[in-house]
Design a protein that fits this description.
two-stranded antiparallel ribbon, nine-stranded mixed β-sheet, disordered N terminus, single chain, 2 domains, Spore Coat Polysaccharide Biosynthesis Protein SpsA, Chain A, alpha/beta
Length: 341
């Protein structure tokens, strides 16, 4: 039996499948096709099964899978279930020793899945492993290994301090910016775009938290894995490409994604630290948003500033922080509205 946020589930009995691969798709048909092709091209020495859970895509994602990948276990939902719930549906059906959570906007390189599987097989104390992640620009994405979003890290991220000091040991600590990510290391958290976990661990700690509609579900899993005594390891020799944020680019109201990210920060802190930590996330967002709005409104009357920093003093920029301010005052209502859209 497996414990989840919604109760207990029965896991399938062990089989001879090494890896179960779960991909949750939403309006990324071309990228999904390339991702699946890379899996089959670069995975030859271990047995695997693939699940694609489609969250009511408006494009031809479902048709692409049916026509070109008949061996894939396709689960086509008529509604957008959210990322954790979609993964959990597939998890109930997985038979592999290890489970790979993989984004549809990724490309597997140089036998990455095989190497990660072999590492778990030879290192029984390691519960999860992740690769070095490259972006479309062929640069390493530091999201591959991160620290947890405690209050200090939330402040650094939301205030954009971390963006201006990405390589600082303290100010860039959320993405471990003082480390070049070129060597192996035990870490707190891996990026959910490509993360391999022992299935037996999921039977002990539970599946993904469905209260997190989107964002930080990977960190929540990693936190629970570490809390139960398992090591989480970053493998620098394993490489993938992640074309980050492709689904969100297809949405007109991108502030909704930012709102869901803030809600995930609040839920994570509330769940793993205390209710006060969750409330303080709201306070941090409220103070920063109010400051930005005031400075933007007053500064918009100064011609020199508007010419020098046009984006900061634009109405669109102010509207975004007005939405953040609204969320900080009524997070449950705003988050529920974002989910429904």
């Amino acid at each position: 039996m497996v414990q989840t946020t919604k109760g207990f589930l029965t896991l399938p009995k062990d089989s001879d499948i090494d890896v179960s691969i779960i991909i949750v798709s939403w309006n990324t048909s071309d990228l999904l096709k390339a991702c699946l092709e890379s899996i089959y091209n670069e995975t030859v020495s271990c047995t695997f099964e693939v699940f694609v859970v489609d969250n009511a895509s408006q494009d031809d994602s479902v048709e692409i899978v049916r026509q070109h990948f008949p061996n894939v276990n396709l689960i086509a939902s008529r509604e957008n279930l959210g990322f954790p719930k979609a993964n959990n549906i597939a998890l109930k059906k997985c038979k592999g020793k290890n489970v790979l959570f993989l984004n549809p906007d990724t490309l597997i390189l140089e036998r990455a899945i095989e190497t990660m599987h072999e590492y778990l097989e030879h290192n029984p104390g390691v519960g999860a492993v992740g690769p070095k992640i490259y972006g479309a620009d062929n640069k390493i994405q530091f999201d591959g290994a991160r620290n947890f979003p405690n209050l200090f890290n939330v402040f650094l991220e939301f205030s954009r301090v971390a963006k201006h000091f990405p390589n600082h040991r303290i100010l860039g600590r959320f993405r471990m910016g003082d480390w070049d990510h070129e060597n192996d290391r035990d870490v707190n958290s891996l990026d959910g775009s490509c993360m391999l976990i022992r299935r037996e661990i999921l039977s002990r700690i539970g599946f993904m938290d469905e209260d997190l509609f989107m964002y930080l579900e990977d960190m929540d899993l990693c936190y629970r894995i570490r809390k139960n005594g398992w090591i989480i390891h970053y493998l620098s020799a394993v490489k993938i490409i992640h074309l980050c944020g492709q689904s969100s680019k297809k949405v007109d109201h991108k502030s909704l994604f930012y709102t869901l990210e803030l809600e995930a920060y609040r839920q994570f802190n509330k769940k793993h630290y205390s209710k006060l930590h969750g409330l303080l996330v709201q306070v941090i967002v409220f103070i920063i948003s109010l400051d930005v709005i005031i400075i933007s409104v007053t500064g918009s009357k100064v011609q020199f500033l508007t010419k020098r920093f046009p984006r900061f003093f634009s109405e669109i920029y102010r509207d975004k922080f007005i939405n953040f301010l609204h969320w900080s005052l009524t997070p449950d209502r705003v988050a529920a509205k974002a989910v429904s859209r």
